[in-house]
Amino acid sequence: MDLFSIITILVVVSASFAYINVRYVKLPYTIGAMVITIVMSMVLTLIGWLDASLTNPLKTLIEGIDFSKVLLEILLSFLLFAGALHTNFDQLKVQRGPILAFATFGVLVSTFLIGSAMYYLLPLLGLNISFIHCLLFGSLISPTDPIAVLGILKKVGVPKKLETKIVGESLFNDGIGVVVFLTIFAIAEAGIEHVTAREIGMLFLEEVLGGVVLGLALGYIAYTLMKSIDDYSTEVLITIAIVMGGYGLAQYLHFSGPLAVVVAGLIVGHDTVRDSSMSDITELYVDKFWETWDALLNGILFVLIGLEILVLPFERSYVISGLIAIPIILVARYIALSIPIYFYEKKLDFVPNTNAIMTWGGLRGGISIALALTLTQTMDRDPFLIITYIVVIFSIIIQGMSIGPVANKLIGDYKRDESDGGH
Fold this sequence. Notes:
Na+/H+ antiporter like fold; 0% strand; 423 residues
């Protein structure tokens, strides 16, 4: 099947699911899309059991889609830019200390804790996996997914300072998480004995600093170009070019593409930049374009996630490992967040139970699955892919559907005080 036909099918299915969710299911878009695609996958799986010939063409189609490449090289740049574009920059600046600590220190600690726990627990289920491969799993499952988080937080109504921490952390720890994953991936591929600490440090530094500097440059270029004209269609095209060209350039220079587009999106979305470079009509069109694009790509993303279930090798030990991994990942995240929170809570006015809310609200999504799909068979791809899918499904459906009530219960009094002007 040609590329246009595949894209057509994905867009039609995504639009259909969006309609079903808005008309009947009425869940936050991210959760609704995941629930509908899982139900669809189960129905298709049942049909396949009854008559494999009916679903074999679909499985062939799915196997022909490089999910990892589609997300990491196409969808991710647009989705991250759209998320950063609508992030409160002033709150982000105030909360920059804890956000950066969560996104760097938190990801590294979580990676080590999850990797270590899985290394000692998996052999109990007959899965003898090396420590470096367990660390690889820890790195791909540690970053929270801004794509999943953003869609749900819009419906929850948590205090802005907490929302900024969760969204800001998700935007940045995604970029950092990909860098950590690629670093450990390079070590696993080459062998620890062939990689020096200096090479690891330089790779990490180049990816992170390069991505941030490139993002600043992209944001400034977009600002300069948009300030010099007043034509909304051209200015929308400039934002698209910045995302696509910037992400491609980052890959060519071996910088972090996710970090580059996040930083560029934050600059373009900053109120000062908007006021001085965009007319009201341009601002409206830029916002509406990226909101629509965000909805479309989110729909395609979750349709792909659901369809991939049809071709996964579900084995009993893999499924049990996935269920065991859920509490391990939650505990590791809680511990990883507690240290930055302890350090910063005396300097900043933190919402009560911030750690518990951020732990439960730290959703995993398509990024973790895409990274798991890049694993080779020698890196125990199949078990880690199933484990990742189970964690992501639990995260988006169970955590996503309950984060609102959980957050409201844990911060109810504080929220009322804040609305009365007490904070």
